[in-house]
Amino acid sequence: MNKGIVHVILGVLLAISVSLNVYLGYTVNRQKKANTVKVIGVIDGDTIVLENKTRLRLRQLDAPETELCGGAQAKELLSSYVQDKLVRIEEQIPDQTGRAMALLSVDDSAVNEQMLASGWVRYHSDTTSQTLRLKEVSQNAKVEKKGIYSELCLQTINTENPKCIIKGNLENKRTSGRKLYYLPNCAQYKFVQIEKDLGEQWFCTEKEASTAGYIKAGTCK
User: What is the 3-state secondary structure of 90-137?
Assistant: First the structure.
């Protein structure tokens, strides 16, 4: 075959290939945009408001209440990821109250994973395609003492006010379990951690702890 004809054929094939790639890229991007929605507000570190005024919670994570340790940081971080941006919603389900929950991504960034990797939110047990990965990054944040797992929110010693050494502890954490306080003479005292992102706190006096609804732990003398 004439070399000139071969070059022409190769040129045509190259042009077709380039055009096809451009078309496929355009189609993929258009599909991505079609499945996205704009975020117009951030309630806290795990809940956003979409442009249709729907509230949406991020699956597999729990952020501290905004008034608790880490709450403001979690909200600020989530805002930096999604505020006024188009997010892609995947694996959406309703929670027990009917509120929507989902995995979110902005472009190719997985927002749920980024939040858990930061340490400013806790891992929440759930079943999604990303469960193993999300659990892993959350555990890494805990090991590395990031966010709420740092001494800012997780304490065994009251560095802010060393005179207030009574530990207010939630027996069942996020459930409606008893609120217990521990004095230095309590058998478990040195093992009790104050998780301030959950609302646990230090007290200066037993009266102060009692007023806040805490009762003395049974292991105290």
Answer: EEEEECCCCCEEEEEEECCEEHHHHHHHHCCCEECCCCCCCHHHHHHH
Residue 4 lies in a domain: no
- The residue ranking higher by pLDDT, 55 or 30, is 55
Three-class SS of residue 50? strand
Q: Do you know the residue count of the chain?
A: 221
What are the tens digits of pLDDT across the range 186-216? 998 999 999 999 999 999 999 999 999 999 9
Which residues contact residue 186 at a Cβ distance below 8 angstroms, ignoring those fewer than 6 apart?
192, 217, 219, 220, 221
Q: At 85, phi and psi to the nearest 5? A: -115, 160
8 A C-beta contact, residue 60 and residue 116: yes
d(CA 24, CA 17): 10
Output the pLDDT for position 25: 46
pLDDT digits (tens, 9 = 90+) for 115-130: 999 999 999 999 999 9
Domain match, 171 and 139 both: no
Residue 38: inside a domain: yes
Question: Are 51 and 112 in a shared domain?
Answer: yes
CA distance 200 to 69: 10
pLDDT band at 172 (very low <50, low <70, confident <90, very high): confident
CA dihedral of 62, 67, 68, 73, whole degrees rounded to 10: 70
Residue 70 counted as domain residue: yes
**Which range of residues forms the domain containing residue 195?**
154-216
